[in-house]
Structure formats: structure tokens, C-alpha cells
């Protein structure tokens, strides 16, 4: 009996030692909670394309290989809430929406920052676009002019995004009046709300109604005339452009890969991101996958 007890004690000791060694390497044997965005999200579309989760066959057909049991969240705020409340979670959000409730991982050794986004060292970068039709109303055109002016671009930069024109001229109003409806991406919405607030002070004769949904919905709204301006946190496709709209880039943004603040992981590779989101790597300690 003593021999058997000694053997069991030795086994338990070995297991405890292995767990301690694993912890010292910054890992955890707990299963990763994979959090993704919904279909139609521009952030999801850009993320799966840039990280190789989306694959294209010889005919150009695209397949999104995000694992089927990923937890789907319909806005940036929900992703932040889920990751901040789950020590094993991983998610992705707009860099400009990053806050101290979560931790942004380095990707391939590069921390997401304004400097690394501008330099091209941080690789998960996408544009913020607006979709508009030719022949905008005077009010909608005035608001677009404001966004692209030095005044609007400064607001974009102060909000944590990358301005696309550092030599833009100051805003000059066309004296328009009326109401503008802007709809689409939940990633673009926070900075668009700041732009709308500042613009309405610059031109008090115009009201801007910003409606949050997703990139695909915003683009459809612009095509159908439901909104004057559609917001998209991804490139606008050739098919969408063929339906009577044009794409205007208003800012550049990165996608931050985020984990819980208690997660010891600090850095992740593009291959690891793909492995986690396609389901071949399921635990933080699984170094072989």
C-alpha cells in the first residue's frame, strides 16, 4: 500500500511540476475561447483576408475557414466585453477602439501603434472607407469635404487613427443645409460620430444622423439611397462599386489582436492566429500547432 501511495504521490508531483513549468513559459492548458465578428463585418472581412483564414481557390472563390464554434459578436464593444471577461479569450478589434480593459498582442514581434502602422511594420492594417454616389446632396458633399479637410483629418488622428492626407486644406463650407444619414461599420462609427459632432459646430445648418450596423449594410444603404454615406472598415468590392457607388478612403486603421489582461501571452505569429481561428490550435500551451 505504501509503495502504491508513493507512486501516486510521485505522479501528482510530476503533474504539478509540469504545470509549474508550463506557467513559467507563459502558457495555459485551458482551451482558447475564439471570438469573431459576424458575417458582413468589415473588420472580420479584412481580418480573415490579411491573416490567411480566408482562402481563395483557382477560380477566385473565397472560403472563410473561421472555426464553426467561434463565439460571434456583432459589435466592437461586445468583443471587448467578452475578451475582458474571459481569461482564455482571443478576439480582434479596430486599433482605434483599443482600451485598457484588454491587452493587445504583438504580431510577429511588432506592437500595434501609430508609428508601426504608418511604417508598415505592423501587418494587419486596413482602410476606413466611405461609400457615396455621384451627385451627393450639397449637405452630404459638404460633410465629405469636412472629413477630408485638415480639420477632419486632425480629428481622425486625435481619435487614434492614421490620417490619409497630411497636407489637406482647411475646411471651407459650401453653406449647405439639411440632414445627412450615415450608416454602416461599427468600427468606423466612433470616429464618424466625432467627425459629425465637430462638423455640426462648423456648419450649424446641417444635421448628421450616424447609424451603426456593419460594413456590408452601410454599403447597401448607400447603393439603395437609404443613407447618403455608407461606412466600411474594409475595401469596397468591384461588385459593390459596379452598383453606382464610389469608394473614398478617409483614414487608415489597424486590427488589434486582443486577449484578456490576465493572459501571460505577449506575442503571436500570423501562423498562430490562423491556427487558432481555423481550429488547429486549441489551447494556449499547444506549441506544436
TrEMBL record:
Gene3D superfamilies in alphabetical order: Periplasmic binding protein-like II
Coiled coil segments of this chain: none
Domain PBP: start-end pairs: 26-150, 170-286
Subcellular location: Cell membrane
Signal peptide: 1-18
UniProt keyword list: Lipoprotein, Palmitate, Phosphate transport, Signal, Transport
Chief place where the protein resides: membrane
Source taxon at top rank: Bacteria
Topology of this chain in the membrane: Lipid-anchor
Quaternary state and interactors: The complex is composed of two ATP-binding proteins (PstB), two transmembrane proteins (PstC and PstA) and a solute-binding protein (PstS).
Family: Belongs to the PstS family.
Name of the protein: Phosphate-binding protein pstS 2
